[in-house]
Amino acid sequence: MKWIHSESATGWRPPEDRAPLRVAMIGAGKMARLHSETVRAIPSIVLCGVSSRTEASASRLQSEFGYERAYTDHRRMLDELQPDAVFVAVSHATSFEVACDVLQRRVPCLLEKPAAYSAVDARVLVDLAERGRVLTLVAVNRRYYSVVQQAALAINQYGPIRGVLVESHEPTLAFRSRMQFDSWLYDRWLLANSIHAIDLLRMIGGEVEALRGFGAAAAEPFGDHFSIATRHQSGALGTFVAHWNSAGGVSMKIYGDGVEAELESLESGFVRYATGRRIKIPPDNSDTRFKPGLYAQNVAFLASVCDNLPAPYPASDVADHCRTIQLVEDILGTVHPEP
Predict the structure, then answer these.
(1) Is the model's pLDDT at 6 over the cut of 60?
(2) Which CATH number fits domain 6-141: 3.20.20.60, 2.40.50.140, 3.40.50.720, 3.30.450.20?
(3) d(CA 206, CA 233)
(4) H-type helices in the chain, by residue range?
């Protein structure tokens, strides 16, 4: 397992034979803005176009970040500009449809998570990406948190990872009260947002070969209490625990031989050794300047576009992301098992 510390990405720029790299954005909401901040900070990048369903939103992002052109039709933007790469950060309801449009045009893309709301739809994207040989990554940026990477590296220095515990307690009732999204999205919150935590369980522990667990539905129709045990092909044992609407947030522990790492909110933490030594893990510069993990993730994507090669670990391509979606569906099956 090779970890790429995000500090090494700082200062990256496209090679001379690929510069300037023309990048487009589909979407003009919060995540589109955060992605734009990181991409604008990279030299020799041309922000050639932004598209949003509303003209005002597209114009606002164009003005703020210097996109050359603004559109209300992403298909027209892709056909006219033919960008080298595109970021897809649209609403949850349209993400699958837009991803299909991009892949059919064979444009390398980074899709905001989740790329689909079922493993069946995710496999459609996998098929489009493979048939078109299109670089397609999914934005699970917590994989690139510098603190997460340093923690895993510290454990691996003393041998294999023996276990991983991920807790993801989310205030879904409070989220529902804000009515920011349609009701169906909160019904699928394990896919819509908790997928970040479940993806980390897969990434750290390795592919899951067996799963046992329990779930309960107290307030949410598809479950809001989960206690899951996993056995991974690597030999590691995993645990996923979620008690929504209780106190707490997202945290992780990684266990090794004579060493363990504990991450609070995944953005800070420490490594503790059997000798009693305890070392704090600081975030790197890119994680303090931008949304954690985002800069390193986006650089990995754009570097792969330039090299015309698959993105290195810990990137999640759409096929890998499909396996995470399937794992989420398996976890949901503990609450509503098939008859």
Answers:
(1) no
(2) 3.40.50.720
(3) 6
(4) 30-40, 55-65, 74-81, 95-104, 119-132, 146-156, 172-178, 183-187, 189-192, 195-205, 285-289, 294-307, 318-332
Residue 261 forms beta bridges with which residues? Answer: 254, 271
Q: Where are the domains of the chain?
A: 6-141, 146-282
Nearest to 110 by CA among 48, 32, 54, 4: 32
What confidence category does residue 144 fall into, taking pLDDT thresholds of 50, 70 and 90? very high
Residue 2 is predicted with a pLDDT of: 37
Write out the DSSP string of 143-164: GG-HHHHHHHHHHHTTS---EE
Query: Within 13 Å and on the Cβ side, how many CA atoms surround 188?
Result: 15
Euclidean distance between CA atoms 64 and 71, whole angstroms = 15
The Cα 150–Cα 279 span in angstroms is 11
Cβ neighbours around 92 below 10 Å, total? 16
116 exposed, middle or buried (CB, 10 Å; 0-12, 13-18, 19+)? buried
Residue ranges in 4-49 assigned as alpha helix (H)? 30-40
* Ordered DSSP codes for 72-99: S-HHHHHHHH--SEEEE---GGGHHHHH
> What's the CATH architecture for 146-282?
2-Layer Sandwich (3.30)
The chain-wide mean pLDDT, for the chain, equals 94
* Dist CA 205 CA 217 (whole Å): 27
- According to the model, what pLDDT value does residue 265 have? 84
The Cα–Cα gap between 52 and 61 comes to: 9
Kindly state the tokens that stand for 116: 């689909």
For residue 322, pLDDT over 90 is answered with: yes
Confidence check: pLDDT of 257 > 90: yes
CA proximity to 243, closest of 223, 265, 262: 223
Determine contact, residues 217/224, Cβ cutoff 8 Å: yes
Beta carbons within 10 angstroms of residue 199's beta carbon: 26
pLDDT tops 90 at residue 141:
yes
